[in-house]
């Protein structure tokens, strides 16, 4: 990661954004709830990122184009589901920024953080799978944690919404 000026998210005209990676996982939903609760309590914005990972090697351009189109439709569907969840939870006032990127997940997260200086906190949900918290949490909160450009909040996937309320 390149050397950058420190983020000053509390000066006039700056709004801190919470960045949540969206997918269809239960722990992703818990991370979204945590971030929405924090935005509701402290102000700021909410950005949702859906990353379309590249297909495994294919020699058929039509297959790749169809895959990409399906992934864009899936991203929009996931955004709609998450918007409904926000309303169900009582966060109607929060209108999240919806971002779709193509590439490798961890790389796209870092690029977005580099490009959008208002992103101040990355919120991830940790899987309850006995194999571990998930590859993204392991990667970003593991070896890269000391050099990551912003704080990472990891929300345990086994927390209830009531428990998250008490923490957020």
UniProtKB/TrEMBL annotation:
InterPro entries: Rossmann-like_a/b/a_fold, UspA. It holds the Pfam family Usp. Residues 15-156 form the UspA domain. Gene3D superfamilies: HUPs. CDD domains: USP-like (cd00293). This is UspA domain-containing protein.
């Amino acid at each position: 990661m390149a050397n950058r000026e420190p983020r000053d998210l509390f000066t006039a005209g700056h709004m801190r954004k919470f960045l949540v990676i969206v997918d269809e996982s239960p722990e992703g939903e818990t991370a979204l709830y945590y971030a929405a609760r924090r935005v509701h309590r402290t102000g700021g914005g909410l950005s949702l990122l859906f990353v379309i990972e590249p297909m495994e090697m294919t020699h058929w351009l039509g297959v790749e184009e169809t895959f990409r189109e399906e992934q864009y439709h899936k991203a929009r569907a996931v955004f709609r589901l998450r918007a409904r969840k926000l309303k169900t939870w009582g966060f109607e006032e929060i209108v999240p920024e919806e971002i779709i990127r193509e590439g490798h997940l961890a790389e796209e997260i870092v690029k977005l953080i580099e490009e959008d200086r208002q992103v101040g906190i990355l919120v991830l949900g940790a899987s309850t799978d006995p194999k571990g918290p998930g590859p993204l949490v392991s990667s970003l909160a593991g070896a890269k944690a000391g050099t990551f450009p912003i704080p990472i909040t990891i929300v345990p996937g086994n927390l209830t919404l009531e428990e998250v309320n008490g923490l957020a």
